[in-house]
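RETRY 2/3 - previous attempt timed out on the joint model. Re-submitting the same 874-residue input unchanged.
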Amino acid sequence: MMSKKDNKGFRIPDLTRVAGPISSIGAIVVGLIIGLIILLIANPSKALEGFGWIIGGSLQSPKDIGNVLYYATPIIMTGLSVAFAFRTSLFNIGASGQFIMGAVGAVIVGVHGKFLGSFQWVAALLASMVFGALWALIPGILKAFYNVNEVISFIMTNYIGMYLANILVRETVYHKLTNRSLPVAATANIPKMGMDKLFPESMANGGFIIAVLIAILVYILLNKTTFGFELKACGFNKDASRYAGINAKKNIVLSLLIAGALAGIGGGLLYLAGSGKYIYVEDVLAAEGFTGISVALLGMSHPIGTLFAGLFIAYITVGGSYMQLAGFVPEIIDIITATIIYFAAFALILRSVLQRFRFRKAGDKS
Amino acid sequence: MEYIIEMLNIVKEFPGIRANDDITLQVKKGEIHALLGENGAGKSTLMSVLFGMYKPESGTIKLRGQEVHISGPKMANELGIGMVHQHFKLVHNFTVLQNIILGVETTKNGFLKIDEARKKVMALSEQYGLKVDPDALISDITVGMQQRVEILKMLYRDNEILIFDEPTAVLTPQEIDELMTIMKGLAAEGKSIVFITHKLEEIKRVADRCTVLRRGKSIGTVNVADVTIEQMSEMMVGRKVILHVEKAQMDAGKPVLEVKNLTIRSERAKKNKVNNLSLEVREGEIVCIAGVDGNGQSELIYAISGLVPVNEGQIILKGEDITNKSIRYRNVHGLSHIPEDRHKLGLVLDYSLAENLILMEYFEPRFQKGGFLRNNEIIKHANKLIEQFDIRSSEGYKTRVRSMSGGNQQKAIAARELSRDPDLLLAVQPTRGLDVGAIEYMHKQIVRARDNGKAVLVVSFELSEVMRLADRILVMFEGEIVANVRPSEVTENELGLYMAGAKRGDAG
Ligand SMILES: Nc1ncnc2c1ncn2[C@@H]1O[C@H](COP(=O)(O)OP(=O)(O)OP(=O)(O)O)[C@@H](O)[C@H]1O
Ligand SMILES: [Mg+2]
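RETRY 2/3 succeeded.
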């Protein structure tokens, strides 16, 4: 027979199959309601005002909308990264490590590559892609050739990546006084591509446009190419794809390589945004990698869905920042926005689990 | 007469299809009631309605004369309805006992009362002649044993109404005999049984009455004793079915497949799975491998198709040594394979029908250009095969294969593999789960491939199929070929002796 022990590993339910965009929106509503309840408990008198900011804060001016696009950019990329790996039925919990490695790659080229002139930003972005991809390559090879569960190796590479990033920053682009990376050259910043005109005073830049283009590319890759056909086949049924002569090892490695590249570019786009972001030398995992998991879930692992999910989470985050005006401290705001995001994602998982148990509805028109 | 179950005017729709269209089924207490119908006629759907997995659009279900609304499998169980599904639902890394009590564990102070459960299971298996090893892992026991576990599961829950969805499709003839005896025993004890099968002899053997479905509608219910097998198949298909295969005499040509001294070792057992085996299949020849399941047939086929590595020996395809070639290489050099396990190997259940039909060829220039899939071609190809092989589904080429009926899934695989125009066709149980009309068609296709000078190697556990189809029969026993005969030279009885290892012939 074939491999006796079917290594299932950790598996996120494939949401694209059970639910459409409707359920994503339903999940978001659930998340918002739970956020409101927590607000009511935390501070009943200010709750409604605070909630009003969450909902409306991002829509006050073009500047706010521009900032939503700015915040959405990196998490769209990590979301795409997680979603892409999902399609091969791999759980990329390592997007955080890939993200920060990508950021380091971009910053190194951004600081030391002035000789590249107006190509510097392109080179820096490519560096972020390569760094991210290489960082996912290690777990990819372990998974493909030694059947090491990717979740475990990804968690390890997250921490190793964090410390390695600290070392690399300290050795190559360190500003001692501030304990962070040096600023990148002006030519390393992503061009605005007209976003500054559309959304004046905001931090919006060409990075968002690049992320949108990449989401479309990922969509085409997954749905229109033989490569995507192979990847998804491996994800759905490893044995059948082997029977069809598809090289599963190659596909696992390539899938994670691409997932890593996507997360890495996310790091590049954030730290080359010209918004005064620096890599601090500290022992904290990059949150964008984990937010990417929620984004991918809410986006149903669909590239275009992921795009919108990233926008939604950024929208809540920017809106939430205005809650300070209602007298909430930043920590509470973080809790509220995180609650909304995670409950929305959780509602989706729950729904799919429920559906799995009661598949009586499987054929019903929904 | 008292009916224990009445399903009246049941309608169940899926997007694009009315799977059950005003069906009525009435089962008497203590009878074995057969449900017969073509692939996709709606049998499994009707039973899923009874088991509470689907909610019908309209119609009523009565249990012992009382109307009931069955909201789910759990409630069905509480009402005494149990089901053995077409594809089993067992937890593979659990033991037999754990599987049986799963979901209805009795506990004391939060601890499982496992000893009591064990006693009950042993008593039941004694009472109904269902021998099992309660501590064996599901993954280690045969399909026949797994089925017994499913039956014990129903009995353990004190179910009175037992639904068997194509229980015999996965069994060997010996296991089928045993199952028939078990079923009769159950009915004698007062259990009521609904029995789905495509094999009319089985209906003749055990069933009291039979309800026939066609394309979602019920055609009628008959007393099995009053009708012939031919009448039943005509009721079901709507025309006469010719069950014997028309086959012209043909001289075999050059060898297409040569297997030389093949040995495949077993990790656990001392005996080799395949032991120094040699065989040859020539152009224009159908060779059937007969044998009891588990005598190395699967390993032999997997070795030829490249799915398991070879320890010793050679595999030669059209004169070329392919022993160490990749699976893809074999697939594009004239090898086609209808595998034994359609869900595990043959299909990507979450892909559409169209996607599954190009699974072996998506990379060929006719389906892709510069790495981009050519959708129009893919759909055209799918529609052609759907029409040719009469693959029935709810939404045509777009249908997700998971939602298709078992027999139509099998047709899809066969369509894909036969349409590739292979030089060598490996077919394991090619007609498993097919209705008589589809079997007739499948046999014709296999014979046609042979008439076109292709080589065909079939593994079948059904002697009647082997006798009908083969130009030459090889009997496999414990990894070796113990007989090499022409169907005209043997009787089924003799084959049985070879298969049991009681007789050895000229294996050359
Ligand atoms: N969950 C589902 N969603 C959509 N269509 C379905 C679903 N289940 C069944 N169907 C469709 O309903 C029809 C009847 O299917 P069913 O499985 O009941 O057939 P069957 O009589 O059991 O056939 P077989 O002998 O091949 O097992 C088929 O056309 C099938 O494609
Ligand atoms: Mg069925």
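The domain at 19-357 of chain A is CATH 1.10.3470 (ABC transporter involved in vitamin B12 uptake, BtuC). Closing ticket.
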